[in-house]
Design brief:
four-stranded mixed sheet; seven-stranded mixed sheet
Length: 416
Amino acid sequence: MDMDIYEERESAVRSYCRKFPAVFSKAKNAELYDENGKRYIDFLAVAGSMNYGHNNTEIKEAIMSYLSEDNIVNALDLHTEAKGEFLSSFYDRILKPSSLDYKIMCCGPTGTNGVEAALKLARLNTGRSNVIAFSGAFHGMSIGSLSMTTDLVSRRGAGIPLQNVTFVPYSGEFNSIEYIEWMMKDDHSGIERPAAIVLETVQAEGGINIASVEWLRKIRQICDTYGILLICDDIQVGCGRTGHFFSFERAGIVPDLVVLSKSISGFGIPMTILLIKPEYDIFKPAEHNGTFRGHQLAFVGASAATKYYVEHNVDRMVSESEELIRNYMNDEIKPIHPDIEIRGLGMLWGIDMHALDPALALKVSHRCYEKGLIAEVCGRRDGVVKIIPPLTIEQEVLIEGLDIMKESLKEILCTY
């Protein structure tokens, strides 16, 4: 294909294709192929939206079967068989076994739309406008979500002031719990009591920053004490990524609102849902809506994905791959240089190059691409190499990808 078409006709805003400038054609599970047939191992999973792998056979069969007849494809929020089956499947297979009682709101197709809906509901329920978010957060690119996103490049794109958010430092060197409690208790803190605290239990774009179980439980306690809603953004780290279907399950907490997107449809079809504790489901009809909140192929895929998750014990797959990655990181990656820092949970890992030079991370990513591995960077100054493969990746393919990562690190660091 003539590569000039992209430069001539596509907007300058494009980004991933600049880092990985192949023309991709085929994909299966954790492998991509370009138009010339070159194979790449996928450690990006379309930013975490392909947890069940590219062209998952069982999910694809369900979608193709639905498409083979004249079944309705888009339906606003009308009642449909596909949506009813999804609601039942998600409750029976995911919510009920974990004793979770949520109403399910079908939002517009992007994750940021679900975040916007959660913000609206929190403000409607409390009558307060301020929210607390954390440094390193990424919640989306629409104005409300962007207000809680901290990287400067994204924020500068807004073109207007981003307001009604109080940011709290998120690091092991700062006692964020103590700071939030001070905000709530001190009548001279100057900070309005928030409608919500919004968090990612693992900051993925922020650099693979993992909240401790103790910290998450204390945040839940603060919310309970001061009448604040807890919103969990599980867009990238939900749907099994961290070892449980929901990333917050490891802490034994129950958020008031949970946003799911990316892999919820199981097949890469845009879909977002907001899980709402029943007492907070106070939207009036059409108070938050959108034309594409009723994409039936997404519902069909999501039903098949929940079935696949349970019947194939995806949580066990993640546990086995997590152990493999952890051992590989400790035995093969960490010894390359003592200043490399490794962080990870489930099947989301980061190789932090900040103690050396954050610019090295992008060089490693580029070298991986040259060798047939797609791996993105994240974190402050893009200084962390990110590993986020499909949960269904075969272990031999996973090891092959990790070997490429190791070789690339060694080659880049030998010139450092």
